[in-house]
Design goal:
260 residues; Rossmann fold; 2 domains; 5-stranded parallel beta sheet; 5 strands; 53% helix; 11% strand; binds adenosine-5'-diphosphate; binds magnesium ion
Length: 260
């Protein structure tokens, strides 16, 4: 007959196994009922697995940093409706496959809000992938060269929420624009995409080198979408000015590590 430890190993109860001596000891000390004892063991394993899945989801989301809605100062951005953002954080956009587009100049918090919604999405147990448009295009180019474009596209189409940050900094070639279109088409009504851009939709044709393709892409993207336009001041400038006048809450050095 195998030992309890061996049986747990066979069952791959890896979160209970190392804790088993302590669990046994606690059961003896507190004279646990059979039911309570079994429940303790099973809960330990289930909780451990949930935590591991959460960690995995967080890792594979590739968030460039952690930002939360709780730390976003809505009073600084008066054109932004706080209520609307908190409604988005209730995540119905994830299940209805509704896209969210944050539009506005640099520093107004587009990336912050995109990451914060991604964090909420992850906490609710959904999968997320974060990328910038530049990285996305580079990865798709590399995949094409290696003959693995289909697999790579799948990587971007499968997450419940895909974040594409910084649309507007990269000018796309016709082929790159086509691949972006393919991705948007594949995600259409299947997954939610959060995009951030400093460029108005009218200029996406130039960006994609093709007005017709840009129109087709925007058609799908905006069919089910929430467009959040932020017309406020740059938070980075606030930090910099505050640093200069000695009222800094944050050192501007941390800011320079970030992308615009
Ligand atoms: P954008 O993507 O619009 O260029 P970011 O989201 O990168 O701007 O914001 C720049 C920096 O300022 C980030 O460190 C971000 O966390 C911070 N930030 C921007 N807006 C706010 C805000 N309203 N409250 C708190 N921090 C903010
Ligand atoms: Mg940004």
């Amino acid at each position: 007959m195998n030992s309890v430890q061996e049986l747990l190993k066979d069952l791959r109860f890896k979160y209970v196994e190392p804790n088993m001596p302590e669990v046994m000891e606690q059961a003896r000390v507190h004279s646990l009922t059979y039911e309570a004892f079994l429940k303790r063991i099973l809960s330990l394993e289930v909780e451990g697995r949930k935590r591991a899945a959460q960690d995995n989801r967080l890792k594979s989301a590739r968030l460039p940093m952690r930002k939360t809605l709780e730390e976003f100062d809505f009073s600084f951005q008066s054109t932004l409706s706080e209520r609307r953002i908190w409604e988005l954080a209730e995540l119905s956009f994830v299940t209805t496959h509704t896209n969210i587009v944050f539009l506005g100049p640099p520093g107004v918090g587009k990336t912050h809000l995109a990451i914060a919604l991604a964090v909420k999405t992850l906490e609710a147990g959904y999968s997320v992938l974060f990328t910038t448009l530049t990285d996305l295009i580079e990865e798709l180019d590399a995949a094409l060269a290696q003959g693995s474009l289909k697999a790579k596209l799948r990587r971007y189409t499968t997450p419940c929420v895909l974040v594409i940050d910084e649309i507007g900094y990269t000018q796309l070639s016709a082929q790159q624009a086509n691949r972006l279109f393919e991705l948007v088409r594949d995600r259409y009504e299947r997954g939610a995409t959060i995009l951030t851009s400093n460029t108005s939709f009218a200029e996406w044709g130039k960006l994609m080198n093709d007005e017709v393709l840009a129109t087709a892409l925007l058609d799908r993207l905006l069919h089910h979408a929430e467009v959040v336009t932020i017309n406020g001041k740059s938070y980075r400038m606030k930090d910099r000015q505050a640093a200069r006048t000695g009222k800094a809450g944050k050192a501007p050095a941390t800011d320079s590590q970030e992308t615009v």
